[in-house]
Specification:
The protein is of the alpha+beta class. The protein is built from 11 helices and 14 strands. The protein has 3 domains: 165 residues, THUMP superfamily (THUMP fold, 2-Layer Sandwich), CATH 3.30.2300; 108 residues, Alpha-Beta Plaits (2-Layer Sandwich); 107 residues, Alpha-Beta Plaits (2-Layer Sandwich), CATH 3.30.70.3190. The chain binds zinc ion.
Length: 387
């Protein structure tokens, strides 16, 4: 039975050792497909010499081109060599090989299975994947990793080319911002942002193609951030991955506008964890009133639910919706009879300037409304984040 299948394969044209052995991969363990194929071929050659089987003698020798894999498998060491060369300039510890099949290889394999069945066979894709993985692991001295590889190697059998993708490098840290008018994330209208300042030294070291700042909560550019705000910086397509976070921290902290601490390598999962947190925010707000303030204690009426329609100032970029946001507490201190400092603890996503001004009634209640006195934010800082 096994012999009959093997003879049929042998008679379908030149089939390389790997492709012959692979059809019996589930039998005779402990050999590579190539070794197994060699054994079967030698056995069939003896059978042929003893005139037990009929076969084309040419198919016992190395032929023109394997009718199944089109010589891909014999050439795998050569492809591995090319990949290793490309990988030389990259820093990585783990990798994953992916194989993109070509139409003709799929057809060759299906045609073979149609004739001989596939009971003992292994798919060609998995052999290429495994063998290439082994060669790269040995050649580069690195480990294959299915879960979160640093590098993804895609071997395209149609083009006979490889593409190498470097997965993002994630760096966790916390920052404070001491300057007003500095946006948090990249903006075409601003030369400098928190993101740019933090990313710059990392970009230099990693030669990444671009960067994204994932931070705990969005920040108004006018507000200082006097509490340590957690962030994860994502560096896309990095060439180098070894970063001296201590040295980079010092470099960033030489700037006056922001300070960072706790820099460490992180991963993608922590980004969604960070993004899912919606802490209450503690603000210190300096407010100017139109007239003398009467009964400041009335601001306590703000504790509870605030209805906020999308502020007029953001209507060009955001849909007009009403959201309910909570104010947890509010404290006040008079500076003079028309200027007060408030400490407000509000739910994440609250538009603070509108909570003060009322935004022509779009936010209600507001400080303006409960005090019956038009109020405007003079300046404000984030001073706390409450989980
Ligand atoms: Zn082959």
């Amino acid at each position: 039975m096994i012999r009959d299948i093997a003879v049929k394969i042998l008679n379908s044209g030149y089939v390389c050792d790997s492709c012959l052995g692979r059809q019996f991969a589930k039998l005779l363990r402990g050999y590579s497909n190539q070794e197994r194929g060699r054994i079967i071929r030698d056995f069939l050659a003896m059978e042929y010499e003893a005139k037990k089987i009929k076969a084309d003698p040419a198919n016992f020798e190395k032929g023109e081109r394997c009718v199944v894999c089109e010589d891909i498998l014999d050439n795998l060491p050569k492809f591995a060599e090319e990949i290793l060369k490309k990988l030389k300039k990259m820093e990585f510890e783990t990798f994953l090989v992916g194989v993109k099949m070509s139409d003709s290889l799929v057809m060759n394999e299906e045609a073979l299975w149609e004739k001989m069945g596939m009971k003992y066979s292994e798919p060609i894709k998995s052999e290429i994947n495994r063998e290439l993985g082994k060669m790269i692991a040995e050649g580069a001295g690195k480990t294959a990793d299915q879960e979160k590889p640093d590098i993804l190697i895609i071997f395209d059998l149609e083009k006979r080319e490889t593409e190498i993708f470097s997965n993002s490098l994630f760096v966790y840290g916390e920052y404070k911002k001491f300057a007003r008018g500095l946006p948090q994330t990249k903006s075409p209208r601003y030369k400098q942002t928190v993101q740019d300042i933090i990313a710059k030294p990392f970009m230099k070291v990693t030669s990444a193609s671009s960067h994204v700042l994932h931070a705990l909560g969005r920040e108004e550019k006018e507000a200082r951030c006097l509490v340590w705000r957690p962030f994860i910086l994502e560096l896309k397509q990095p060439i180098k991955r070894k970063v001296d976070t201590e040295r980079i921290k010092k470099e960033i902290n030489m700037r006056k506008k922001i300070k960072v601490r706790g820099l460490r390598i992180s991963d993608k999962k922590k980004v969604s964890l960070l993004k899912s947190k919606r802490p209450f925010k503690v603000y210190r707000v300096v407010v100017d009133f139109e007239r003398k303030v009467d009964k400041a204690e009335n601001v306590k009426k703000l504790v509870g639910v605030i209805k906020q329609r999308t502020p007029k100032r953001t209507l060009t970029s955001k849909p007009d919706k009403t959201k309910n946001k909570k104010v947890k507490s509010i404290k006040w201190k008079m500076i003079n009879n028309k200027r007060y400092i408030f400490e407000i603890i509000a739910e994440s996503g609250m538009y603070l300037k509108e909570l003060v001004s009322g935004d022509s009634g779009r936010t209600s209640p507001s400080i303006s409304k409960v005090l019956g006195n038009q109020a405007e934010v003079r300046e404000f800082d984030l001073i706390g984040l409450e989980d």
